[in-house]
Hints:
This protein has 247 residues and is of the alpha/beta class. The protein has helices at residues 10-21, 35-44, 62-72, 87-95, 108-119, 157-163, 179-189, 194-201, 205-219, 224-238, 241-246; strands at 2-6, 28-32, 50-53, 56-57, 60-61, 78-82, 100-103, 128-129, 154-155.
Amino acid sequence: MKVLLVDDHPLILAALHTVIRGLGDDVTVVSAASAAEARRALRDDAGFDLVLLDLSLGDADGFDVLAEMRQTYPALPVVVVSASDRGADVIRAIDLGAMGFVPKRASNEMLFDALRMVMSGGIYVPPITLGGEAPPPRGGDTVPDVMRVTPQVDIPVGEAAVAAGYQGVAPLDRIGLTPRQTEVLAKLLQGKPNKLIARELNLSVETVKDHVAAVLRALNVSTRTQAVIAVGQMTRDHGPGWMRSRG
């Protein structure tokens, strides 16, 4: 697996590099300290399997870079690794096509889980902190531990979305998607528009619209972004295999 790591902070870059290499001997990590370096790396090498993207870059807005990557390389999964864990940032990143969002305070184990989830076809959505500031890092932290989780009041994103008026996530065993609806959902999670979904599944656009509407109703949400968040909660709790098992 070849990973592009985009972060303009040298210490964080070095720490993440070390952590990601811990995923296995077959992992190659390429670092980019700016959006410009990331663009060059992606342009010069088509072999990347995953991008880890910081939102705070010195030469560009991370959300703009995320949108650009998803537009230019739609098949390349991007996971946001950010100092922020605000619910609004998580939702915006997922809305722009990120396949995961990992706060930099997260533990190495959480990062590993997120990357494995994304690489196996799932979406990783973290707990969202509701209200208040996170406590400062504990004294004595070393550079490789910058991914450590600090104690805070976290609510799973599904519950956070309910509290914010976004959605209510139905229990997994009550969703009841048909195999075709599951196929449409899989395409929807890839950010594909209805016309492209219709072409790839050999369906009419109107039929796809009907399936999308049914999927949103089944998930008890009203928009595609809310659907992605709901599925992210399910894959985090149940593993990515539930999508395939229901097809």
